[in-house]
């Protein structure tokens, strides 16, 4: 099969799971046409992302001319799709949610969709697939209306869970050939916004890891209580609460140390919180790292900590478990499907600084042999559930149907 992937910003440091999925499909003999609206504005540190950028067609980089020409060339389909774009723009007006916007934004999506339809037909693609139920899914939805090409999308969360109606999620589900969720929890949210007769078209396809990159478990480092948190520095990830929890725990344990890997809008407030609590010697901020750098930080840590308020099912949890690291995470979304309290890590109520602090202290007091056993159980679980070759095969089977 030849599948056209419709993406918003790609490649991106936080979207390496899309790259792995595409590469796995290609390894199984399928062709994938990469159609992204834009490139990431930040420099790409990972060599895999840089290579992927050379294989991706960025539509907005082409300028307005090709978009307008595509709209003229696909005029009949554009006219048929215009009412849907207009209605979606009205639903999203003033919503303040990424991927919704107003009518002008959705007219731009319509132009992008015309270009996607034009390229996909010219290249012989038989199906369109988008990641995330936001911008990209809207462009694929409209491209389907314009061209008749079938489409599907993968829902991740939490953005789609927060604003299903402004994002026109019911309409996108209804017109898609199938919708993949990355967790059972995600599928349940799709069920909320779809007709019962459509539930059979809702799949669970996990994001995956490459087992060969985790061929053996990482040995635990010396000492105790070293934690790493990996992800965009943003409100939904809960890093400010993490600093508060560390401030509560630090006086009771000299061993605790936290490394924050990633960057984002909350870096300055996080640095201020670290200084306010006098934790400069207890917290290290690395910025974004490539895959080798992330793996090195996991090797230096005794556990991954993820204090998120909202999630889908994060890749960093899968990668940490594959490296044989226990996980401290919040009891939200798809996380309980992977992290088993007492067996592979700790689950804490979201927003509970005291509970998170207590789990940190318990981590610091847990014998190395017990941590190692937890890590190995987590490794076995994630390798069984999140092998990218197996998950890509599930996705390819859905494409074929």
From TrEMBL:
Keywords attached to this entry = Transferase
Q: Which SUPFAM superfamilies match?
A: UDP-Glycosyltransferase/glycogen phosphorylase
Coiled-coil zones: none
Superkingdom, natural source:
Bacteria
Entry's Gene Ontology molecular function annotations: glycosyltransferase activity
One Pfam match: Glyco_trans_1_4
Bilayer-crossing regions: none
Q: Which residues form the Glycosyltransferase subfamily 4-like N-terminal domain?
A: 20-210
Protein name as annotated: Colanic acid biosynthesis glycosyltransferase WcaL
Q: What is the lineage of its organism?
A: Bacteria, Pseudomonadati, Pseudomonadota, Alphaproteobacteria, Rhodobacterales
């Amino acid at each position: 099969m030849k599948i056209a992937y419709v993406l918003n910003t790609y490649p991106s440091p936080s979207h390496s799971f899309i790259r792995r999925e595409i590469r796995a499909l290609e390894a199984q003999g399928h062709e994938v046409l990469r159609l992204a609206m834009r490139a990431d504005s930040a420099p790409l540190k990972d060599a895999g992302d840089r290579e992927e950028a050379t294989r991706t067609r960025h539509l907005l980089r082409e300028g307005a001319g090709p978009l307008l020409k595509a709209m003229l060339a696909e005029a009949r389909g554009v006219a048929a799709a215009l009412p849907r774009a207009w209605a979606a723009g009205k639903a999203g007006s003033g919503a303040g949610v990424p991927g919704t916007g107003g009518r002008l934004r959705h007219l731009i999506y319509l132009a992008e969709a015309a270009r996607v339809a034009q390229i996909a037909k010219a290249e012989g693609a038989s199906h369109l697939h988008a990641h995330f139920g936001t911008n990209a899914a809207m462009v694929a939805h409209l491209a389907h209306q314009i061209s008749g090409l079938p489409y599907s999308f993968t829902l991740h969360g939490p953005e789609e869970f927060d604003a299903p109606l402004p994002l026109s999620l019911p309409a996108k589900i209804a017109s898609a050939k199938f919708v993949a969720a990355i967790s059972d929890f995600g599928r349940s949210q799709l069920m909320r916004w779809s007709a019962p007769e459509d539930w059979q078209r809702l799949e669970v396809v996990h994001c995956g890891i490459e087992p060969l990159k985790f061929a053996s478990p990482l040995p635990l480092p010396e000492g105790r209580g070293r934690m790493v948190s990996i992800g965009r520095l943003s409100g939904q990830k809960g890093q400010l609460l993490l600093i508060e929890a560390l401030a509560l725990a630090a006086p009771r344990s000299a061993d605790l140390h936290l490394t924050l890997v990633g960057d984002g809008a909350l870096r300055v407030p996080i640095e201020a919180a670290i200084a306010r609590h006098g934790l400069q010697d207890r917290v290290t901020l690395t910025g974004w790292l490539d895959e080798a750098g992330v793996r090195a930080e996991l090797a230096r840590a005794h556990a991954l900590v993820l204090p998120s308020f909202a999630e889908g099912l994060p890749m960093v949890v899968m990668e940490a478990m594959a490296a044989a690291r226990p996980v401290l995470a919040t009891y939200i979304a798809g996380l309980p499907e992977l992290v088993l309290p007492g067996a592979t890590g700790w689950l804490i109520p979201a927003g509970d600084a005291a509970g998170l602090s207590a789990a940190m202290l318990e981590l610091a007091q847990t014998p190395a042999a017990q941590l190692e056993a937890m890590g190995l159980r987590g490794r076995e679980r994630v390798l069984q559930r999140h092998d990218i070759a197996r998950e890509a095969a599930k996705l390819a089977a859905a494409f074929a149907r």
